[in-house]
TrEMBL record:
Keyword Phosphoprotein recorded: no
Subcellular location: Cell membrane
A molecular function (GO) term: potassium:chloride symporter activity
GO cellular component, one term: plasma membrane
Keyword vocabulary terms for this entry: Cell membrane, Ion transport, Membrane, Potassium, Potassium transport, Transmembrane, Transmembrane helix, Transport
Transmembrane segments: 14-35, 42-63, 75-99, 130-151, 192-215, 227-248, 293-326, 347-371, 407-427
Protein name, per record: Trk family potassium uptake protein
NCBIfam families according to UniProt: 2a38
């Protein structure tokens, strides 16, 4: 019986159960009176929503984080963000290493699953580098932000604000404690804050495998196809998005309009970066033009790099799909990126992830239009995409969600963070190779 039970607990199931456990423990802690600023217990559904949003590094909130929670509650949220961003298996492996426990093959498989790696080779070494790199980047971000915040608040508070927002932003969570749902709108034209936050978002969204390859580049002098695609797609999307936001919002009196040219550029850059699943905003979301909102939905759905703190279908998935489309339009049999032929398994996986994600967004949007009333359709689509892509940006619908709507978004955030494939592998039985192949079929397409 024991062997059968262990056989059933494949890496996907362990990851799903681990995230569920972390979320419910976090929700319980947030319901404690000491977790709120006024000492009144938070409703369990609100606590569960907050814990899910933090663990899934989303940033959508039904209560104002800065005004609702005490320091204890904020620290609980911060811990959930850190665990969710790096993965609970990273922390578990780190503890095993400290205790001198040997990392088994099953645990290496869990790490491979958590970071979407192609092999178990070097996973423990990578995990250690990830932890060290995270500490260094978050510390630098916290120090820079704290220095800037000292001009606006006492030193102790500035240090705390610097630490909280550095961890939150690096993990692409988007939680803030400025209060009144303001996020970073007060720093829209502050180059120090904007550029520091943008750097944290980009670094956190590249993926730890990419960062590790860049670190080793001095010795290896080579980059994998994955890293080349992530870097290229990231640069193209960030530059293109920033230019488009600048053009779309230049004359908008409620966003970039009142700012000088420097402020306009900073505002456009930040909004070109943030939808890559960071969740922070310097421009009021509800006042953006429809063109910018649609662009934001597109960027949110794509997300960041695989194995990173970001969500979405990932830039590699998008790149493979675009390359496949171009190959079909040119009448080519093979899909080629950077002079490398993409195997059919990767193409089918990319197609599955993208179509699954699209279907989830469509279904959730449809259900929100039923459960929530009196809102513009764009708000439903925006909220559904933000939840699935674990972004955290909102046009204001989150706080007005009904209980059913909140449960729906909780489920969507959870699916978005784990990914449709991981959840699919966790739910379905293990695949077995078929003993025979069925006859080929054909049909008209297009």
């Amino acid at each position: 019986m024991k062997n059968i039970f262990l056989e059933e607990l494949n890496p996907s199931k362990v990851l799903v159960l681990g995230f569920v456990l972390v979320i419910f423990v976090g929700a319980f802690l947030l319901t404690l009176p000491m977790a709120t600023a006024n000492g009144v217990s938070l409703a369990f559904l609100d606590a569960l929503f907050t814990a899910t949003s933090a663990t899934c590094v989303t940033g959508l909130v039904v209560v104002d984080t800065g005004n609702t929670f005490s320091m204890f509650g904020e620290i609980v949220i911060l811990i959930l963000i850190q665990i969710g961003g790096l993965g609970f298996m990273t922390f578990a492996t780190f503890l095993f290493t400290l205790l001198g426990k040997k990392i088994s093959l099953k645990e290496r498989l869990l790490l491979k699953e958590a970071y979407n790696a192609t092999s178990t080779a070097g996973m423990v070494k990578l995990m250690k580098r990830i932890l060290l790199f995270t500490v260094i980047v978050e510390s630098m971000g916290a120090a820079l932000l704290a220095i800037r915040f000292t001009f606006d608040m006492p030193l102790g508070e500035a240090i705390y604000f610097g630490i909280f927002h550095s961890i939150s932003i690096f993990n692409n969570a988007g939680f803030d404690i400025f209060g009144d749902y303001n996020s970073l709108t007060g720093y829209v034209d502050d180059p120090f804050v904007v550029l520091t936050i943008c750097a944290l978002i980009i670094i956190g969204g590249l993926g730890f495998v990419v960062i590790n390859e860049l670190y080793e580049y001095r010795e290896t002098r080579k980059l994998s196809l994955h890293t080349k695609v992530v870097l290229t797609a990231t640069i193209v999307l960030l530059v293109g998005a920033s230019i488009l936001v600048f053009l779309f919002e230049y004359g908008n009196d409620k966003t970039l309009g009142p700012l000088n040219i420097g402020g306009k550029i900073l505002g456009a850059i930040f909004h070109g970066v943030s939808p890559r699943t960071a969740g922070a905003n310097t421009l009021p979301m509800a006042d953006l033009t429809y063109a910018t909102l649609f662009l934001t939905i597109f960027l949110m759905f794509i997300g960041g790099g695989s194995g990173s703190t970001a969500g979405g279908i990932k830039v590699t998935t998008f790149a493979v799909l675009m390359a496949t489309v171009l190959s079909q339009l040119k009448g080519k049999e093979d899909v080629v990126i950077f002079k490398r032929r993409i195997v059919q398994e990767t193409i089918l996986k990319a197609l599955t992830v993208a179509v699954s994600g699209m279907m989830i967004v469509i279904i959730v949007t449809f259900l929100l239009s039923i459960t929530e009333h009196g809102h513009d359709f764009m708000m439903y689509l925006f909220e559904a995409t933000s939840a699935f892509a674990t972004v955290g940006l909102s046009m204001g619908l989150t706080t007005e969600l009904s209980p059913i709507g909140r449960i729906l978004i909780i489920i969507t955030m959870f699916i978005g963070r784990l990914g449709p494939l991981t959840l699919g592998f966790a739910i379905t039985k293990r695949q077995t190779k078929e003993a025979y192949k069925r006859p080929k079929g054909n049909m008209m397409i297009g």
